[in-house]
Specification:
mainly alpha; binds protoporphyrin IX containing FE; elongated; two-stranded antiparallel sheet; 5 helices
Length: about 150
């Protein structure tokens, strides 16, 4: 398969996945009631949680496709960075293929590290509902004598 055809197929998949992601996000955000009140609501046979799971799966696919897409254009990105640095520093800066790989992998590691830090901080910071809040949120029909 030629590089152009590969780019074309990947770009088409990106567009389709992004469109799907956007539509599902709009449905979850505007068609369903807020998550805390969506229990029991269904759309085309699937409940709120299933729609959120579908959104996440599409997001994971999109992230993977973006990764491949940027990998295929990585030498273009490094070329642009090299050109800018050449202008700014007043000497020729050329990022060779070996260094392109090093910077690409380095950037990826950095992004994963950053995401891990934020998710770790969120995991430690999340708070369970207090007994009072959960009592107030429980529908009266499920309460004794309610
Ligand atoms: C809906 C998502 C996206 C679509 C449909 C899309 C589509 C395209 C198309 C049609 C091209 C030119 C043809 C090609 O060489 O493949 C392109 C180039 C490029 N895209 Fe994307 N893209 C998307 C998302 C992204 C994202 C998220 C990034 C970066 C994080 C990105 C980075 C680039 C780069 C660096 C180029 C090369 C620029 C050039 O050659 O002038 N794209 N994209």
């Amino acid at each position: 398969m030629s590089r152009t055809l590969l780019n074309f197929l990947l770009d088409t998949l990106l567009l389709g996945t992004f469109a799907g992601l956007s539509i599902v996000a709009l449905i979850v955000r505007f068609v369903f009631p807020p998550g805390t009140q969506a229990d029991g609501w269904t759309l085309w046979g699937s409940g709120y949680d299933a729609w959120v799971a579908a959104w996440f799966n599409l997001f994971a696919l999109f992230a993977l496709l973006v990764l491949f897409h940027v990998m295929l254009h990585w030498s273009w990105v490094c070329g642009v960075v090299g050109q800018r640095l050449t202008k700014r520093l007043g000497r020729t800066v050329r990022i060779d293929e070996a260094n392109q790989t090093v910077y690409g992998v380095g950037l990826l590691v950095l992004l994963f590290l950053l995401a891990g830090l934020v998710i770790g901080a969120a995991t430690m910071a999340i708070e369970e509902p207090s007994a009072e809040t959960s009592r107030a949120a429980t529908p009266s029909t499920t309460r004794p004598n309610g």
